[in-house]
Structures are given as C-alpha cells and as structure tokens.
Amino acid sequence: MKNYKLTVLKGDGIGPEIVDEAIKALDKAADKFGFSVEYDYQLLGGAAIDATGVPLPEETVNSCKAADSVILGAVGGPKWDKEPGNNRPEAGLLGIRKALGLYANLRPAVIFAPLRGASPLKPEIIGESLDIMVVRELTGGIYFGDRGTEERDGVKSAFDTERYSVPEIERIARVAFDMAQKRDKRLTSVDKANVLDSSRLWRATVDRIAKEYPEVQVSHLYVDNTAMQLVRDPGQFDVILTSNMFGDILSDEASMISGSIGMLASASLGGSGFGLYEPIHGSAPDIAGQDAANPLATILSIAMLLRYSLDEPEAAKAIEDAVAKALTKARTRDIYTEGCGAKLVGCGEMGDIVASLI
Ligand code: NAD
Ligand code: IPM
Ligand code: MN
C-alpha cells in the first residue's frame, strides 16, 4: 500500500478547526482508495512565536523538506500584530514558501452549481458556469524586494520594492501557459505596464514565452481594469497570470464570485511534485473558536494535493464530488442563504458530512 508523509501546519485562528476537517476528508479518501497517510504536525505563525519565539522554526522547515507535501491552515491574528515585520506570523508563511521554492500559486475560482444563489453576482453575469484559474507568482515581487524605514530631517518614510527578473517571469509564465494549454487556451496576463518598469518587463517576457504556445490566445490587461472586469464579465477569463501582490488581491475578489472566500483552495508548487496546500483565506480571527468557519476551501485544497502532488486523481475527484453533494444538504454561515434548501451547520458538521459522502 502506498504511504504518503505529510507535514501539517495548522497555524492560528480558524487554522486548527479547518485543518481537522480536511484531515478527516483525506483519511476517508485514503481508506476508500487504498493508501495511507502519515502526518507530522509542526508549528508555523503565531502558534510558533508563542512556543519558540519565531514564526518559522527550523524544525518546521526540516519536516516540510522531508515530507511528500504540506497542508497548511492559516496564520496571523491581532495577538501578533505588534511583532516587528520580520517576526510576524505572516513572515513565517512567506519564509516557508521561499524556503521550499514554491514560486507558483494556483488559485482556482470555480462556482459549484448549488452555490449560484450564494454569489453576489446576478445569475446572468455568472453565466452557465465559472472556472477561472489564477496563477500567482509567489516568491518574488514586492513581497520579497528591498524594504526599509528611514528618518531624514525628522520625517519618517518607508519603502518596499517591486522587482522581477526575467527568469522569475519566464518560469511562472510557463506554468500559466501549460495550464491554459490544458484548459480553454485563453490566458490573460495582468500588470500595471502603463506605470511600472517591472510590469513592462513582465509584459515583454510573457509575449516572448507566448511564442512557444501558438494555440493559446493571449491578452494583457491592467490590474485596475481586471478588478472591474472580474465582476462585469467573469466568464471572459480562463487563466489569469499575474504577480505576487496583484494575484493576492485579485484572487480574494474572484473568490466572492464563487460565493465565499471560504470556498477557494490553493496549491503552491515549485516545479517538482512537492507542494504546499492551503485555502486562500486567512485565520479569520473574528470567527475563530466559534465552529463557524467554512472548511471547504481547505478540503478542496486536499483534492488539489491528491491531484497535483500525490497522483491520486480518483481520490481528488471523490472529494470534489462529495463537496458538491454536501452543498445541497448543509452549509456554513458564509454560504447559507434563506430558502437554499440546505441546513445551517458549523465547521465540524460540514466536515463530517463531506467525509460521509466520500
Ligand atoms: P481573512 O481571510 O482571515 O478574513 C476575511 C473575512 O473573511 C473575515 O470576515 C472572515 O471571517 C471571513 N472568512 C475567511 N475565511 C473564512 C472561512 N473559511 N469561513 C468563513 N468565513 C471566512 O482575512 P483578514 O481578516 O484580512 O486577515 C486575518 C488574519 O489572517 C491576518 O493576520 C492576516 O495576515 C492573516 N492572513 C493569513 C493568510 C494565510 O495564512 N494564508 C491569508 C490571508 C490573511
Ligand atoms: C495569502 C495571504 C498572504 C499573502 C499573507 C498572509 C502573507 O494573504 O496567502 O493570500 O499575501 O500571500
Ligand atoms: Mn491573501
């Protein structure tokens, strides 16, 4: 029997609640499809600061490097907001992405049919179906550029630098083009080339890589226009290729089209089979500990893990099908609407229902 070794980073806030439900789904899929999973629980973020003083302990990095892949909840919260920038929970998250070389973040915004009424967009804007793949560069750009604060003549200032090298743009562009080639063959590269040098280099590099993919139809949009187009006519998008910060912002926006940020999964990859799987949302401190969080983004991240890293596509499909079925029976608060026909449940019950349907 195949045995997979996974490192699990529950993190902070709702992190432990949603990860527990995701593990339930994975264990059920393992039973059903005949493989086993071994978990190594490690600390990241605020939980790691409390226990060790730093958001990314060396032991966590070593465990991740020795694993087949990583499952992550979310990090951060008001308790640690006063930490210096390089010791915040979020610095731990950026650190683990960088340490593992995970430069490609796939964020699929799909709408499950039962949730059409939960989307804030009108049915005629959503159209028949919606399936957008945001490909976000994850280890470069303004998140990792030179930064600092300084004081001159009594005036304080701070700066962060957006910088991209040609090889960084080339490798993320290839991920997005490969993805588009397997999907509807439409790729929109999003930048701010009317203002930023880094975006002009991005655009020129994407155009050069595009020549390797003659079947893929490429367009370029400015990020401000993209933000508007996503709610005006989301069906125009297939694959969106963009930088670290623009991808962060646009994927939160795209998540609402699918009904809730609690639905959007992600895979962070580095060109090998290894990946880190996490929902795109944060630690939701406002609902932590209330059994109110939607665990489906994390459960759907497990489906991505099974598909992209563990090569268990049938188990991945079984989880996605179970989620689709579960949505007709039960919903957490964020996706519950009056008259939807499903009952209002907490995080734990939602996870139980999904697991029972796998
Ligand atoms: P957030 O995503 O945590 O929450 C935004 C809103 O969405 C909140 O109202 C929250 O209740 C709701 N929400 C999020 N996930 C939900 C879920 N699964 N089910 C139901 N509702 C959900 O963003 P924020 O409030 O801006 O950030 C809170 C903390 O999380 C900050 O410390 C931030 O840095 C951190 N954060 C971490 C990650 C990560 O670990 N990947 C991602 C984003 C934010
Ligand atoms: C995300 C989060 C992180 C990011 C933060 C917490 C560092 O918002 O995963 O989307 O901006 O990448
Ligand atoms: Mn984000």
From TrEMBL:
Q: Where does Mg(2+) bind?
A: D224, D248, D252
Give EC number(s), comma-separated. 1.1.1.85
Isopropylmalate dehydrogenase-like domain: which residues? Answer: 5-354
Subcellular location as annotated? Cytoplasm
Positions of NAD(+) binding: 77-90, 282-294
One GO term in the molecular function aspect is: 3-isopropylmalate dehydrogenase activity
Stored PANTHER family:
3-ISOPROPYLMALATE DEHYDROGENASE
The protein depicted here goes by the name: 3-isopropylmalate dehydrogenase
